[in-house]
Amino acid sequence: MKHILVLLLLGFALSLCNLSEKLHGKKGSSSGSSGSSSSSSRSAEKAQPTAAQTAALAGGQQAKWDRQGMSWTVPPNWTQTENESKSFTWRSPGGGDAANLIVSISPMDESFPVEAATDAAYEQAKSRAKNGEVDEVKWLEIDGVTGVQFREANPEHPDDSRRLQWLAYRKYLGQVQGINLMLATQGKDFERHKDAMYGILYSTKITH
Fold this sequence. Notes:
The protein is built from four helices and eleven strands; from the N terminus they run αβαβββββαββββαβ. With about 210 residues, it is of the alpha+beta class. An eight-stranded mixed sheet has the order 1-7-8-9-10-6-5-4, with helices on both faces. Residues about 1-40 have low confidence and may be disordered.
């Protein structure tokens, strides 16, 4: 199971690297802008689970990340696999067909341009959608925090991972932080886990 998580976390790192490159390019092309103006129209949808997504979490339990003041509702048979200062993971029963909740926190400098970075994340997801890599992109507000939610398209190989992600920023205990929240499973198992994964995402509680 560890190699699957390593691949998922590698995907995390690559997406962050791509976002960083986009952001640096954007900053370089701007004339000293602090990122206060948004390049994309933010009409955020509020997280609202469907009846099926709520039912998928029936009898669920709380997955609490006390060190980061965050929590989720997960199905009763999910278990915690990691609880560190900057990373937090839970997973469903199973082997390679399991679903995973993987959350990472990235501390940022106080002067980090949150608006520009969030816009860059949205534009990157839209570009991936044009390339057929992503089949859902939207601004999504969860517990008062607006971020970018996107879902990868079904992979070419059914055993490859397919991710549902939400990228956002918050200020917590005086620190600007990037939140990278991902729910993932193999492509062939995505439909089976989909309602639970969306339900978990929409259940996110964030201290900010």
